[in-house]
Specification:
This protein is of the alpha/beta class. It folds into 2 domains: about 140 residues, 3-Layer(aba) Sandwich (Rossmann fold); about 110 residues, Rossmann fold, CATH 3.40.50.1980. Helices cover about 45% and strands about 10% of the residues. The chain has 11 helices and 8 strands. Strands 2-1-3-4 form a 4-stranded parallel sheet. Helix 2 links the parallel strand 1 and strand 2. The chain is globular and about 60 Å long.
Length: about 300
Amino acid sequence: MPTRPDPVLGRWVAVCCAALAAAACSEGAGGGGGRVEVVATTYPLQYVVERVGGEHVAVEGPVGTGGDGHRVELTPRRVGRLGEADLVVHVSGLQASTDAALEQHGSGHVVDAADVAGLAGAPGRPPGEEGSAALDPHFWLDPVRLAAVADQVADELTQVDPGHADDHAAASDALQADLGALDAAYREGLAGCRGRTLVTSHEAFGYLAERYGLVQVGIAGLDPAVEPSPARLRDVVEVVEGRNVRTVFFEVSTGPGLTRALADDLGLRTGVLDPVERVPASGGDYLSTMRANLRALQEGLDCVPAGG
């Protein structure tokens, strides 16, 4: 006579099967279909991870594509993602809420670009002029510094995902070549500029200026939300008049504002630069945006083409 199935045993088997199925679904690095799950807190870092990781990574980029990247407030879901990600790539000191979340919840693998890139307080300033005590986070405007971070990201991805180490190495080499070519283009393109003083709406371009022999003078400081004092404006006017500056640059994300007013008062031209803090609205990427910046600098600083 056949035995009747035990209902308790049946429920226990069902629970076990469900647990095994869930484990099978989450097996492997990350939960993004077997891909490594990465959180990158700024667009240039997202670009690096996507280039180096390729199809093997699922990247969650910055919070939104607009707003002020210096003043990000994390949602509970975003805080949870920082703790769950296989790899977090960030810039300590740029977003206080991200720093606090990482300190509280941690993550297995973290690349802090601030350490790798060697951030400084006031790169590219005129000699003798003191800068803010805060570290300038905009290292990615120097392709050489970004290349160092890309190398560290490749190493960390290889540790997280050793099965695709060869792919990560090849992709990293390709990115290093592109950044090297970008560096060479800047060196050549800015070598013959009549103007060497870079007057900007806020001090985001210090590393670029330092790398290529320019001097940055910011109308505002590192934080674009802080209005410049009357004394600072007088200092900028003295620099403009004393160094025969012909162009002042404002940022594509903030518009001309005070920069245009200053230019109109002093009879100067205006140029547009992109600090590459956010996903480019033009649909380009880091490389194309940096090339556009180079063209704007060459025009605004009256650069003579090589051999011209």
